[in-house]
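[audit] Reproducing an earlier prediction to check determinism. Same input, same settings, fresh worker. If the tokens differ from the archived copy the diff job will pick it up downstream; this log only records the rerun itself.
[audit] input (162 residues):
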Amino acid sequence: MTGARPVQSGNRRQFVSRVIHVAIGASALPLAVSKARATPDLMQEAITKLVGDSKVREGRVKLEIPPLVENGNTVPLSVSVESPMTANDYVAEIHIFNEKNPQPYVIAAYFGPRAGLAQLAARVKLSDSQHVIAIAKMSDGSFWSDGADVIVTIAACVEINE
């Protein structure tokens, strides 16, 4: 075995030590966190996709959501719509939109005349303080809405960029 050099244990130890330090250092790097990138314009685009050229009127819809929430991870909301819920006059759909989450179109719920009441209750994530809108589509094709501003002190819906 001429010409072969034995590996020095000091070099091996240094190599292993460096590998371990690099691995530990890489896992300890802080992750860049950025907020979701949605805008009021994207919310308006989503609403326009739903209603088309139809006019959205205010009234008949009641959106209840706390005006101030500590944590945006679970924000309770409820929507009720005034309707007799008869075969000729009923709420067909309820839609929820928000302006600053990754997806501005949050919820779609579908009803029929036998639903009895047009009500919806849910918990949503809110990425920041923002405006939330509920839109109801009636059986005659008309659209009605209500909106509310919500102040969020601890945001949800953040994206982690590595």
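[audit] rerun output stored. Observation attached for the diff report: DSSP finds two helices and eleven strands in the chain.
[audit] end
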